[in-house]
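>> Question from a student workshop board

For tomorrow's exercise we were told to take the sequence and the ligand below, predict the bound structure, and bring the output to class. My setup keeps failing. Could a helper post the expected result so I can at least see what it should look like? The ligand is flavin mononucleotide.
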Amino acid sequence: MGTYKFFAMKKYLMLTIALVAGTMISCTEAQKETAMDQNETLENLKTRRSIRSYTDSLPEMDLLKKVIEAGTYAPTGQGKQSPIIVAVTDKDVRDRLSRMNAAVMGASNDPFYGAPAVLVVLADRNVPTYLYDGSLVMGNLMNAAHALGLGTCWIHRAREVFDTEEGKALLKEWGIEGDYEGIGNCIIGYPAQEAPQPKPRKADYVYYVD
Ligand SMILES: Cc1cc2nc3c(=O)[nH]c(=O)nc-3n(C[C@H](O)[C@H](O)[C@H](O)COP(=O)(O)O)c2cc1C
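>> Workshop helper replied:
Here is what the output should look like for this input. Compare the format with yours to find the bug.
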């Protein structure tokens, strides 16, 4: 083979390799994009909505425990695990907490929207990051519940409820000692409504600093 022919073939070969590699890379990129679009976790995070109507059925305990476990794996400042979760499935206690919550607003309706259970998140005030820690637990609970087909809604005023004498007495009755602040009530149950459409995300939600 002449020198010229050899170099021409080598050039052709290298070009072919580059083309194939390029195609492979772009395939991988496309596959990556599809994988991201179809990612169950991301889809779950996007489709969770606050549910405000529930059936009377109490979710099975093993299902609730899965949700609660996910809550306990939320990140916490310095890994101090400042929050606690009180899983209330007893109807009388659930109703009592609902009444106490309504009383904070001077109302008498059921702020728990008929949900049969409530996961109360409290966190240790002595840990500087307690509010963030407890909020992340709430987020994990809501997203995990949604992943398992359950509905939830964050109901506020846990702080006010557990700062009352009645609230403090309840904690004591449940064997909880320490300086705990109510972070949120995660009401939970089977949805009796279609998930509402989310509001469009505001235009200036994200700033990219490249
Ligand atoms: C800190 C906090 C407090 C909330 N308190 C209440 C509440 O007391 N009652 C209620 O119906 N929803 C409450 N929500 C739910 C919000 O209204 C809801 O997340 C918001 O409207 C967005 O809807 P989405 O959860 O379906 O995306 C609360 C949410 C957060 C994060």
